[in-house]
C-alpha cells in the first residue's frame, strides 16, 4: 500500500519532477515512520525489537513504544533532536550518553562511561558504546529505563524517572497498548471519518474566525452531514478522551502512533461499546454526527449538524494543530480508488 501510494503520487504529478518525487517520499516517511529504504522495514524493525527484548527481558511492545515515542519527538523537533541511528528514533544527548562530568563527551568506552554515570552501553557486543548505533542506542535506553523493573507495572516507573514528564509516560503506555493489541508494527492505514459518498460536504476552513468562544481561530475541518451519520476513526489508535466539552460538545480524542491526536467534535452520541483506553482502527464507528456544543452539557442545535475534525501533533510539552484538510482529501480519494478496484 505504501509503495503504491508513492508510485501513484508520481503518476498523478503533472510535472513528474525529481523534486516532486523526493517530497512524496519524504511525506510517506513522515507518515509511516520509516527511515530505511529496505524492502520490509517493519520486519527489520520488528527483528531489532525482538532481539532487544531477549537481551533486556523487556516485552517487545515496550521496546517498540519507546522507540516510536522517541521518533515522534525527533520528528517534531528535528533541530534539537537530530537522528543518530539508521532506523531507530532514539535521541540521547552527549552528556547523558557519556556522563555529565565526563571530560570526553565523545567517549565510547563502556567502562569509562559507566564510571561517569553515563547511560551509553555496548549492546551489540563489539566492545564500544556507539551513540550512532541503532542497537546500542535503543539497548542503552531500554536498559536504563528497566532499571526499576521490566514488568508492565514496573516499566512505567522507570519511564517516569527518565522523562520526568507524565505526558511522555502516558504516550509510551498508549503506544505499547496499541502494539500489544495488534501484535504488529504496521498500523498506519487511514480512513475518511465519514462513510464516503455524496451525503456530506467539506472545504478547507483552516484558520477561519469562529462565531463563538472569543478570538480563537478555526483549528480543523468541518464536514457537514446529516444528523446521525456515522463518524469513524481515521486511524489505528487509542481513545484518550471521551465526553462533554463546552466548545466541542460530545467529543472524542484518539491518539495514533505518529503521536497525532485526532479530535472529533459536536457528535450526537458515542458508540456505546467503546470507552477511554480502548483500541480503535480505521473505519471503526465511534459516534454519530450531531450539533452538540457551545454551552452546558446537552446543549445542541446552535449550528447545523457537522463533524468538526482536528489533528494535533504532540511536541513534548505542547501540541500544535495542523490543517487536516489535505489528509482528508487523500484518505477520501484512497477509499474511492480501493472501492473502484474491488
Ligand atoms: Zn469546526
Could you please describe the fold and organization of this structure?
The protein contains 10 helices and 10 strands. β5 (249-256) and β6 (260-270) form a beta hairpin. Residues 1-36 have low confidence and may be disordered. The protein folds into 3 domains: 1-32; 38-182, no CATH class; 200-341, Glucose Permease (Domain IIA) (Distorted Sandwich), CATH 2.70.70.10. The chain has 342 residues and is α+β, with helices and mostly antiparallel strands. α3 crosses α4 (60-76), α4 (60-76) crosses α9 and α8 (155-163) packs antiparallel against α9 (166-182). It has helices at 2-12, 18-32, 41-56, 60-76, 94-98, 110-115, 134-145, 155-163, 166-182, 325-341; strands spanning 200-202, 221-225, 230-232, 237-245, 249-256, 260-270, 279-280, 285-289, 306-314, 319-322. It binds zinc ion (ZN). Residues 218, 220, 222, 308 line the site of zinc ion (ZN).
Amino acid at each position: 500500500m505504501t509503495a503504491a501510494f508513492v508510485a501513484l503520487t508520481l503518476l498523478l504529478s503533472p510535472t513528474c519532477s525529481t523534486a516532486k518525487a523526493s517530497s512524496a517520499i519524504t511525506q510517506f516517511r513522515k507518515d509511516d515512520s520509516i527511515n530505511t529504504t529496505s524492502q520490509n522495514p517493519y520486519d527489520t524493525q520488528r527483528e531489532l525489537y525482538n532481539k532487544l527484548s531477549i537481551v533486556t527481558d523487556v516485552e517487545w511492545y515496550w521496546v517498540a513504544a519507546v522507540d516510536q515515542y522517541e521518533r515522534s519527538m525527533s520528528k517534531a523537533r528535528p533541530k534539537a533532536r537530530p537522528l543518530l541511528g539508521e532506523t531507530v528514533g532514539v535521541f540521547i544527548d552527549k552528556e547523558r550518553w557519556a556522563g555529565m562530568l565526563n571530560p570526553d563527551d565523545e567517549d565510547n568506552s563502556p567502562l569509562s562511561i559507566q564510571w561517569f554515570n553515563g547511560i551509553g552501553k555496548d549492546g551489540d557486543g563489539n566492545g564500544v558504546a556507539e551513540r550512532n548505533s541503532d542497537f546500542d542506542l535503543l539497548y542503552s535506553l531500554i536498559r536504563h529505563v528497566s532499571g526499576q523493573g521490566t514488568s508492565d507495572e514496573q516499566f512505567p516507573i522507570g519511564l517516569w524517572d527518565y522523562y520526568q514528564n507524565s505526558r511522555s509516560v502516558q504516550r509510551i503506555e498508549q503506544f505499547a497498548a496499541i502494539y500489544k493489541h495488534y501484535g504488529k508494527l504496521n498500523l498506519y492505514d487511514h480512513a475518511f471519518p465519514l462513510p464516503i459518498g455524496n451525503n456530506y460536504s467539506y472545504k478547507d476552513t483552516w484558520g477561519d474566525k469562529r462565531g463563538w468562544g472569543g478570538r480563537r481561530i478555526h483549528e480543523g475541518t468541518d464536514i457537514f452531514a446529516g444528523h446521525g451519520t456515522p463518524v469513524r476513526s481515521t486511524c489505528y489508535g487509542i481513545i484518550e478522551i471521551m465526553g462533554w466539552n463546552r466548545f466541542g460538545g460530545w467529543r472524542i480524542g484518539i491518539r495514533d502512533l505518529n503521536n497525532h491526536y485526532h479530535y472529533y467534535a459536536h457528535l450526537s452520541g458515542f458508540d456505546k461499546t467503546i470507552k477511554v483506553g480502548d483500541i480503535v482502527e480505521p473505519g471503526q464507528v465511534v459516534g454519530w454526527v450531531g450539533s452538540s456544543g457551545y454551552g452546558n452539557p446537552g446543549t445542541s442545535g446552535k449550528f447545523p449538524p457537522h463533524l468538526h475534525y482536528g489533528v494535533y501533533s504532540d511536541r513534548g510539552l505542547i501540541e500544535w494543530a495542523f490543517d487536516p484538510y489535505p489528509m482528508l482529501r487523500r484518505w477520501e480519494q484512497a477509499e474511492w480508488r480501493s472501492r473502484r478496484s474491488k
